Amino acid sequence: MQTSVSAGLFEKAKTYFPGGVNSPVRAFRSVGGSPLFIEKGKGSHIWDVDGNEYIDYCCSWGPLILGHAHEGVLSAVSKTMQNGTSFGAPTRLENQLAELILSNNSYIEKIRFVSSGTEAVMSAIRLARGYTGRTKILKFEGCYHGHVDSLLVKAGSGLVTFGNTSSSGVPESFVNETITVPLNNRAAVEEAFQQFKNEIACVIIEPVPANNGLLLQGKAFLNFLREQCTAHGTLLIFDEVISGFRLSFSGAAGLYEIKPDICTYGKIIGGGFPVGAYGASREIMSCISPEGNVYQAGTLSGNPVAMSAGTAQLTECLRPGFYTELEKKTSYLINGIMSANPFPLFKIFSLGSIFWLAFTEKEAISCAEDIDPGSMGYFKTLYHQLLQEGVYLGPSGYEVGFVSSEHTYDDLDKTIAGFVKSLSLLTKS
Questions:
Q1: Which of 124, 205, 206, 409 has the fewest beta carbons closer than 10 A?
Q2: Would you kindly state where each structural domain of the chain is located, as residue ranges?
C-alpha cells in the first residue's frame, strides 16, 4: 500500500497546524504512522490521495448514516446554494428541519440549532444552570461531551470527588463546579446528591457512552438517574450527539423510553455539515434569549445549506425499516467476524449500528476502569493490518465504528474476510 503522498502532505501540514491536524485524533498518535489524507468518498467507500480504496466504518465519526456523497443530500445542498450560503437571518429551511425533528421525536417540544455538538452541550449546561439557579453539574467518567471547559475533567480516587482537569488552560474554578463519578455506580450518584444537596443543576450523561469505548449502561441505570434527578429537582441531560438519530429517530431516549429534561444532538442532523442542536420542553426552552435571560447566539446557527442537508438526510432516516436494516447489517458483520474469530481476547460490543472493537476477557464493559490500556497495543497492530485489507476505522481503539445504509452485503463479506485474516496474523505477531 503506497502512502507517500499522504506522508508528504502530513509533513507540510505540520508547518501549518499544531501536530499537523485540526482535530487531535486525526494525527494517528494512538496507532502510529502518518494519517491518511482522504481525497473522496462515495457510498460506503473512501479513497486516499495515494489512490488506496477502503470500506469506511468511521463515516466521519458518525454523521454519514447515508454514506458519502448521497445523491439526495447533494441535490438538496446544490439547490440551496444557488440561492446563497448564509444570511444571518431566518429562513424557511430552519422551520422545515425543526418541524421534521419535532414531529417525529416526542422527547422535546422546542429546539435551538447551533453549529456543533460541543456548542450544543455548552448551551444546554448554561440553560440548566439558568433554569435551576444552581451551579454544579454532575458528569460521568468515560463520557465525553465536547471540549467544554467544565466538562474536561476526570474522576479522582474517591467515589465522589472533584475531578482534575484533563486539559491545560481549564481554570480550577471551573473544575470545582463539576462533580465526576464512575459510570454504572448508583452509590456514587446517591453520595453526590447527599454531599451537594440542592446544588446540582444537572446530571449529564451519554445514554450510550461511545467516546471511550462503547460503555453500555442499560435501561435500569438510566431510569435510576431519571428518578434521582426528579427527586432532587435536578435536570437530566442526555448527550445524544452520537446516539441521536443513530439508534432510532428519537435516539437512546426513544430506544429506552426515558424522557430527559434536555437533549443535545449533532452529527447526523447536519447531513455531513456542521450542525448541533439542543431541545427540551417549552417551559425550559422559554428561558433561552430572546424569550428568556439565558443568552446564546451564533452567526451561522441554522445555516441554510446545513439545514437543507439535514432535512434530506433525516427524511431518509424516516423510511419504514431504515433502522431495522441498519441493525441487521451490523449484526451480520459482527456475527460473521466472531464466528471465525481466531483471537481469544478479541470481542465486539454493539448497539444498533454502533460497534466497538475490544481486546478483553470480560463479557461486558460498562465503565472506563474496565478497559485495559495495554490492550490498545493489539488494536494498533490490527488497525494497520485492516488498512492493508481495505478496511478503514477511526484511528483510536477507544473510538466506535458505524455501519451506514450504503454498506452492502458484499462490503460486509469483504470486511469479515479482512478481519479474520488480520486477526489470524495478529495471533502470530
A1: 409
A2: 4-69+320-428, 71-317
Q: What is the pLDDT of residue 155?
A: 31
What residue type is assigned to position 361 of the chain? E
Q: Could you tell me the sign of the dihedral formed by the alpha carbons of 291, 240, 41, 96, in that order?
A: negative
* 52 touches 1 (CB < 8 A): yes
| C-beta separation of 392 from 419 below 8 A | no
Active site residue 267: yes
CA distances from 196 to 138, 160, 161, 184 (A): 10, 11, 11, 20
DSSP 238-251: EE-TTTBTTTBTTH
Which of 267, 329, 347, 380 is catalytic? The answer is: 267
Catalytic hit among 54, 107, 131, 144: 144
Given the residues 54, 56, 107, 239, select the one marked as catalytic: 239
Map 81-136 to HEC letters: HCCCCCCCCCCHHHHHHHHHHHHCCCCCCEEEEECCHHHHHHHHHHHHHHHHCCCE
| Helices assigned H by DSSP within 180-263 | 186-195, 219-232, 251-256
Tell me: pLDDT of 168 over 80. no
Which CATH number, 3.40.50.720, 3.40.50.970, 3.40.640.10, 3.30.70.120, labels domain 71-317? 3.40.640.10
CB contact set of 9 (below 8 Å; sequence gap of 6+)? 37, 49
pLDDT value, residue 428:
83
Q: What confidence tens digit (pLDDT) does each residue in 178-223 have?
A: 999 999 999 999 999 999 999 999 999 999 999 999 999 989 999 9
Predicted TM-score of the model (pTM): 0.95
Q: Is the CATH number 1.10.150.20 carried by domain 4-69+320-428?
A: no
Distance CA 89, CA 208 (A): 35
In tens, the pLDDT along 69-86 reads: 999 999 999 999 999 999
What are 370's three cell numbers?
Answer: 474496565
Higher pLDDT pick, 178 / 162: 178
Which residues does 331 contact at the CB level (< 8 Å), separation at least 6? 350
Could you tell me the three cell numbers for 215?
Answer: 460503555
pLDDT digits (tens, 9 = 90+) for 289-336: 999 999 999 999 999 999 999 999 999 999 999 999 999 999 999 999
